[in-house]
Specification:
alpha/beta; 2 helices; 7 strands; 19% helix
Amino acid sequence: MARLNPEKLYVDFAPGVTRTDPIMGRSYTLTHSDTTGDLFLTVGLVFDYSKITSMRDEVLGRWNIYYNQYACYIYLYVDGEMGGAAASAARNMIFRRELPLALEAIRYGDREFFYAHPTLNNAPIIVYFFSAFPQYNKVENWGVFADYDGVIPDDSGYEE
């Protein structure tokens, strides 16, 4: 069952990318509003640093090559601005709880890209949890984008 509410997702395509290309270097900046629950996704050739706040609770992603195949690298800053092991533990838990929603938002927000390149639905998602604390500083495989397809109809008449 989908957790994403498409009406709360706002997508912006930055200069240099179209809804279908390029693959290499395609970058995602996903932020949110704690007040409204809205999600904001920028798809570009670089991360949208103007959307990143001192809270550092954004989800960043970029297509790259991993073992001779495409993969999407996701970057999360676990320590944030607060510091301390307790704060990092809490942020780690929140990132892990909310990451499936974030991946679904990226998959849905960039759905025309995935329609144009269907093999990317099965590309690995490699997540980097950055932290000064070894117990939270990890690299993990979070499956493939097909795992985060919420089967939400789009406006083109196709259903995923």
